[in-house]
From TrEMBL:
Keyword Disulfide bond appears in the UniProt entry: no
Name of this protein: SAM-dependent methyltransferase
GO biological process, one term: methylation
InterPro entries xrefs: SAM-dependent_MTases_sf (IPR029063), SAM_O-MeTrfase (IPR002935)
PROSITE patterns referenced in this protein's UniProt entry, alphabetically: SAM_OMT_I
Pfam families: Methyltransf_3
Length: 252
């Protein structure tokens, strides 16, 4: 089956994902070993140092073996376009999982330093294996932690005010808005930075979507992309792409 043929039905590995939702929330993994299996598959099947082939191989694993909760190939094209538009020197991702989103950011912005925050140390290990195989370990970095841990992870990241050009949010949906606010409070987003949020439709991030709507044209300018959940066509999803217009209070 070619990668352009997204599945119109829910496969066994997707249903098992639904049963493993509690594991995802607490551990960041499904609980059946599919994340480590994905890294094994990449190391066995993808050409070393070929980021395109590594990304394609992850997609193939998700289609042919076990469903993965990364942004996927369809929504990945939206991510690619947003990254190219932002042309970042420094990018931050919230939610590493197996490292797929960071790979797409690194490919679309070949001069960027990409940082990713991940709750699960096991997922971080999987991602680092995949990044090393793709040949980008020198410019893609994972910090194990959460933005909402009282400041430890923010301190570990240690960005300067205005340093962040691009932010990709793809982790705990309830944390989308508070984590964005924590980053804004530190002043890290430069005016004109681009923020992309996955899964705003499913599982859904209603508070984040409402916030972007409330501040449309003042603090943010947002486009909602109607698309599908990763690796199938049965479930629809929303990806929000937002340009940061700056803190109007600071400029007033």
């Amino acid at each position: 089956m070619g990668l352009t043929k997204r599945l119109p039905f829910l496969r066994w590995s997707f249903l098992r994902l639904a049963w493993g939702a509690r594991n995802i929330t607490s551990t960041g993994q499904i609980g059946d070993g599919r994340e480590a299996a994905a890294a094994d598959f990449v190391e066995a099947q993808a050409r070393p140092g070929d980021i395109d082939d590594v990304i394609t191989t992850i997609d193939r694993f998700a289609y042919e073996h076990s469903y993965l909760i990364n942004v996927g190939d369809e929504k990945g094209l939206l991510l690619d376009a947003a990254v190219r538009r932002a042309c970042p020197a420094t990018a931050l991702e919230l939610g590493t999982y197996c490292g797929y989103g960071a790979l797409r950011i690194a490919r679309a912005a070949p001069q960027a330093q990409v940082f990713s925050v991940e709750l699960s140390a096991a997922n971080a290990g999987v991602a680092r294996r995949i990044w090393a195989h793709a040949g980008v370990a020198d410019r893609v970095h994972c910090v194990v932690g959460t933005i909402g841990d009282g400041g430890a992870t923010l301190d570990a990241l240690g960005f300067s005010p205005g340093q962040l050009d691009f932010l990709f949010i793809d982790h705990d949906k309830d944390a989308y808005l508070p984590d964005l606010q924590a980053i804004l409070d530190r002043g890290w987003l430069r005016r004109g930075a681009v923020v992309v949020a996955d899964n705003v439709g499913i599982p859904g991030a209603p508070r984040y979507r409402a916030y972007m709507s409330e501040h449309e044209g003042t603090r943010w300018r947002t486009v909602e992309h109607k698309t599908h959940a990763e690796y199938q066509t049965l479930l629809t999803d929303l990806v929000l792409e937002s340009d940061y217009l700056g803190d109007q209070r600071a400029r007033g």
